[in-house]
Structure formats: C-alpha cells, structure tokens
Amino acid sequence: MRKIKFLSKVSLYLREIETKILTIFHDSSHRPKITPRHEGAIAVMLENYYTSSQIQNSLNKLEKTGKLFSVKYPITKGMVKFYFLVDFKDEAFQTKIEKKVKSYALWIEKYSSKTVTDVLGNHLHELVKKELELQNFEILVSKDAKEFNGNYWTESKHSLDIIARHIPTNLIVGVEVKNRLYLTSIKEIKTKICMCNHFGILPIFAGRWMEPHRKFIESNNGFLWQFKHQIYPSEYTNFVDIIKKRFKFPVIASNKLPYFAKKEFTEFITKIC
Predict the structure, then answer these.
(1) What is the DSSP string of 87-148?
(2) Residue 33 DSSP class
(3) Which of 111, 134, 166 is the last residue of a domain?
(4) Per the confidence metrics, is the pTM higher than 0.85?
(5) Strand 162-166 vs strand 151-152: parallel, antiparallel, or unpaired?
(6) Statement to judge: residues 126 and 256 lie in one domain
(7) pLDDT digits (tens, 9 = 90+) for 116-173
(8) In terms of Cα–Cα distance, which of 149, 141, 156 is closest to 195?
(9) Do 128 and 200 lie in a common domain?
C-alpha cells in the first residue's frame, strides 16, 4: 500500500512538471502561442521549481505523448532543440515556426558567442573585485589562480578567479565568478572547493544562479553570493531588452551589483569575522 501511495505522489509530481512546462506555451487566457522555446530557455524559466534533468525528462514525455513537437536547428556550437505546440499543423503555421526558429537561433548565436561571453565574464569579474575592495579586501590574485603561498594545484587544469584577503581580519577567500545563464555543474563546484581547501582559504561562489548547490557549498564552509540575474555592461541595454523579451531570461544591464547581494555579503563577512 505504501509503495502505491509513493508511486501516486511521484506520478502527481511528474504531471505537475508537465503542466508547468505547457503553461510556457500558452498565454494568460490559456490560448496557445506560436512561440518556440529551446530546452535551455525552458530550464532557466523553471529553475526555481525543478532540476534541468526533471525538465528534460518531462519534455521527452510530452513529445512522446504528442503534447509537444520539436525541431533541431544547427548553430555554430552544434544543434539546438526547439519545442512548440503540436496544435498548429497547417502549412501557414509551419512557415511561421520555421521563421521564428531561424530568428531565435540567430539570437542564441549572438548571446552565446565568445565575444559576448568574454565581455560578461570580465564585467562580473570587475564588479566582484570592486565590491571586495569596498568591503576592505585586498586582491592578492586577480585571475587564473593555480598557486597560493607556495601551494600549487596540480589535480586538474582548473583555477580560481580571485584570491583576496580581508584586511581587518586576515580572512582569505577564493572567489569563483560565474556570469552565465546555465547552472554550473556540481563537479566543478566540488573541484573549486577542493582547491580552496588545498590553499587553506574560504570558498565563495559569485554568480547568477547556483541555488541547487547551496546546501553543498554551505556545508563546506563556503558562501553562495547569488545575483539572480546575468549582468551585462550598461551599454548592452538594447541587447538585453531583446533577449529578455524573446527568451524571458533573467538578464539586466548594469554596472553595479544588486543591492540585496551587497547586503548579503556584508552580513556574511560580519558574521564570520
């Protein structure tokens, strides 16, 4: 009996995920939208509720049961899979979908290009560095830290982004900066924590979204410095407006860290020092 109840709860939960996914493809009046969504965008839109693997499994089931349809479209880095409602099967709809998929793929190329990702990485790196300095930290190593105080990291090719010392207390932190849309793998999180342990410093993970790793980070005496948005330089305002409208991404154009994030970091430093 218990097993049956457990399976019922699982089935209800899976149906809940599928329902949540399908709402993405309808407007507030539950009318179907002619809008394709790629798997990455769907995962980001529902990241507060479900893991990417749960979403992917549900997408596969929705496609298998005929509730969603998909098409793959080539971009420079490989293939992107787009989903849309099967309700529209006439020729006019197919033409609209093809046009939209092509347009969306073009913008995926733009926001995922090395030029843009390099700008994003450097931008958040500088914002984090500036905030550390405002919080009385001295930057000891600014980039690609593979050695500290004569200790070398040789277990992998990874490096830390910043190593800094809190001047009033001598607390030393290793900061990993991630200005990306998609979730950093737990494997990388574990490696960076191992590096910090090797150097004898406290790990800090600064980025848009790593909430699924919070418990692991904090259980290893680390701090999750989360900004909730991917932060572009202010001159990218028009670019940000377009991808926010097209993909519903949590992105902003700003030359400052969010106030709440500054406050959380101040509270963390005050608490541990």
Answers:
(1) T--SHHHHHHHHHHHHHHHHHHHHHTSHHHHHHHHHHHHHHHHHHHHHTTEEEEE-S-B-EE
(2) P
(3) 111
(4) yes
(5) unpaired
(6) yes
(7) 999 999 999 999 999 999 999 999 999 888 999 999 999 899 999 999 999 999 999 9
(8) 156
(9) yes
